[in-house]
Amino acid sequence: MKMENLAIYIFLFLVAITLVIATVTARMMKTATDYYAAGRKIKGWQNGLAIAGEFMASAAFLGIGGLICFYGIDGQIYSICWFASYLVVLLLVAEAIRNSGKFTFADVVSYRLDSKVMRPMAAIATLVVSLTYLIPQMVAAGALAKLIFNIPVTWGIVIVGVLMVIYIAFGGMVAATWIQIIKAILLLSGGYILAIGVMSFFNFSVNDLFATVLNTQGLEQHLNPGVWLKNPWERYSLGFSLLFGTAALPHVLMRFYTVPTKEHAQSSALWTMTFMGLFHVLTFIFGLGAAVLVGVGVIKGMDPGGNLAVPLLARFVGGGEGTFGGEFMMAFISAVAFITIIAAVSGLCIAASSAFSYDLWFNVVKKGKQTQPEQVRTARVSAVAIGVTAILLSLMVRGQNVAYLSGLAFAMAATANLPSIIFSLYWKRLTTAGATIGMLGGVVVAVFLVLAGPKVMGKDALFPLANPGIVSIPIGFLLTYLGSIFTKDPESTHKYTELAVRSQSGLGSE
């Protein structure tokens, strides 16, 4: 049986399971809390597994493996920083976010500040960041579908978009959570099976793996830093963006509203670190194993981007090309990788649709006057609208290199959103004007530095770093600080103590 046919069958089987989940959870959607926050019934370990699933997507599974295969341990920076980023989440935002808001991060920044100004601004920021992160994921899905399933890029994008809309429109956050959990379990299981298979070629010794890499002609440099990110400032800036950007991504923040108590919020972050650690400790095995066993040249010949490094490694470990074991392993890993993209974009879609239906429509347009069924109906309609928009935008740019958009999403989140979140929770002097200046200025700075950087302008770049976080994030905090100390907001100052008590105790939260 051809690999692409086998991969399609496995993929369809996995989709059938997730559609059953969406169908069952659709019957549970009675209130806005059910739709946006899974009824606040998700346990800490379940939420931790779901959040980890957000980051064990194609970028982690396929992208990091390909980077390490081509360039060595430089690619491990993503694994290390994504893992470490949840220390920031745990210490600064997990419990406070859970206690301070209801469904979205706009709840937090508009609690102290003028909600007529801040809620629309926070909602628009959420929409922009979510779509900016969503589009490259869908374009990558199209490219991956062409490589793995041998179908056109357009169909890959449409399939991902349609399934995303079905999951979110019908199942809401419950469906998104359980699909992430199932995907994460599949990915962890498949990853450990693959890692055990790879290590069997090296006597289950990491030292033997490194020695083989060192002694393989042309791979000596794989164990030294600086092969991929030659500029050390680029390494620092990328790490800075990943470390702090995670704490401001809307689809991550939303997950802390799905748990029943602040203790479960803390537990979620700890479990996330556990599951991400269990997965990311394997990525160097995937990358270096593919480089040694399959060969860098072979992988580059089939996919210059490196996304096929892990599937090709799976085929080799399973018995090689032409064997059922080899083809099955490659098909299984490929199908799971494709499912990871669908699960990841579903989380982004619910964050974007919530920003429109809850923050803009319910709170601004309707001024909080909608029945529960009307709120759920609006949320479902907005999910369809966001999904269609994402599909159309992704189809428009499918032939372009949009890799810079993922970096832009992290930069905008950390530069524009994070200062407002942190200052809202921990600084008494924050004003509406300061938060407004910080958010608007942060978006402008992040977009300018990315567009002026080498990812877009190449050798003619006006800004030397592809990842501007080390510059843009401090500017975002500085703009918010300066905007606040030169303006006054008595209401914000008065409500600071109230928010501080609420964020630490949970009094007043659902």
Structure description:
- This protein is mainly α and 510 residues long.
- The protein has a single domain (3-403), classed as Sodium/glucose cotransporter (Up-down Bundle), CATH 1.20.1730.10.
- Helix content is 77%, strand content 0%.
- The chain has helices at 3-26, 32-37, 44-55, 58-71, 76-100, 105-112, 115-149, 153-199, 206-215, 232-245, 250-253, 262-280, 283-302, 309-318, 324-365, 372-396, 404-426, 432-451, 454-457, 469-485, 490-505.
- Helix 4 packs across helix 13, helix 7 (115-149) crosses helix 16 and helix 15 packs across helix 16.
- The longest helix has 47 residues, at 153-199.
- It is globular and about 70 Å long.
- The termini are far apart.
- The model has no long low-confidence stretch (mean pLDDT 88).
Radius of gyration: 22 Å
Tell me the CATH architecture: Up-down Bundle
Distance between the termini: 53 Å
Report strand %: under 5%
How many discrete domains?
A: 1
> What is the number of beta strands?
0
Number of helices: 21
- Principal-axis shape: globular
- What are the secondary-structure elements, in order, as H or E? HHHHHHHHHHHHHHHHHHHHH
Low-confidence segments: none
- The first-level CATH class name: Mainly Alpha
Percentage of residues in helical conformation: over 70%
Q: What is CATH's topology name? A: Sodium/glucose cotransporter
By CATH, the superfamily comes out as: Sodium/glucose cotransporter
**Which structural category do the helix and sheet elements fall into?**
mainly alpha
Give the overall average pLDDT: 88
Largest sheet: none
